[in-house]
Amino acid sequence: MHCDFETTTTQQKAEFIKLDHASLARKILAENEILNDKITACLECDPELVPTALAEVIRFLSLISISDDILTPSQRVDLAWHEFILCTRVYARFCDRQIGRFIHHSPGGSDDMNRHRFAKTLRLYQRYFGQPDTYFWGNTWRGPADPDCGACEAV
Known about the structure:
With 155 residues, this protein is mostly helical. The protein has 8 helices and no strands. The longest helix has 19 residues, at 111-129. The chain is globular, with a radius of gyration of 14 Å. Residues 1-7 and 140-155 have low confidence and may be disordered.
């Protein structure tokens, strides 16, 4: 998930981090009810957690947008991101309006490499957003790994 943002200024990158992630998530979900159901089902979680799940995805996408490194999400964030991506028009519009470009999902890499990338992601998360929510970023949930998604921390 490499981000080539060489033409983006430091100020523009700072704007991505300062997004109101929770409000954006609630707005997207209000306009796309199916996304609520899809994220609830894929995470097997209470529907009340869905806005937070999508906010965590948006935070992760914000980190990608400012980083020159390849980052890896947690398994729960990755699963919610998959559902967001599948709403192609909504996802593309979000990326265009909020990030300034489409962010592709590019799975791959060895387990060791992905663990290193995940640790890097957590360090960036803590730097910009504080302590991550352990439900979404913790390493305690080990559901079935998606064999096609090699860039998830739980693989």
